[in-house]
């Protein structure tokens, strides 16, 4: 699937995220993540707006691009999908903790359209797959690049898995469940390696 509108989304995502990189070794341009998510979503839908939203799913969260600009450039459906996928960073002017952000994201997804859940599944599949592949043998580096509680991280993904399995009627859920199992095993290995160092 390729269209003028998808080309515009690719260009917008590339420009808006141009100075951002993904955590990992080596740090890759952020656009690589957006291509991976959109490419995955494309395997599970023929809807151009969903693919466009996949390319743009982080613009409101990570750039100065506004929801109004998004709607003007790509339409109401794309804006609604991206808004549903945007994790809040603060509430009442106060920065949210990692857990508070994840809880708010999950609460938003509970009310989100199915199309947004498809993008969320693809986003997390790519995140988990990259973590497992890049840090499989380097648990210490994982803990540096992704500080925080392993238990909170595992619980956050478990809650998301429960939601997606309950609400998402799309074949992507099979891929999500497979990668999520690998990710849980990886977190278990990281925890054991931490315990062995004590």
UniProtKB/TrEMBL annotation:
<dbReference type="InterPro" id="IPR052194">
    <property type="entry name" value="MESH1"/>
</dbReference>
<protein>
    <recommendedName>
        <fullName>HD/PDEase domain-containing protein</fullName>
    </recommendedName>
</protein>
<dbReference type="GO" id="GO:0008893">
    <property type="term" value="F:guanosine-3',5'-bis(diphosphate) 3'-diphosphatase activity"/>
</dbReference>
<dbReference type="InterPro" id="IPR003607">
    <property type="entry name" value="HD/PDEase_dom"/>
</dbReference>
<feature type="domain" description="HD/PDEase">
    <location>
        <begin position="26"/>
        <end position="137"/>
    </location>
</feature>
<dbReference type="Pfam" id="PF13328">
    <property type="entry name" value="HD_4"/>
</dbReference>
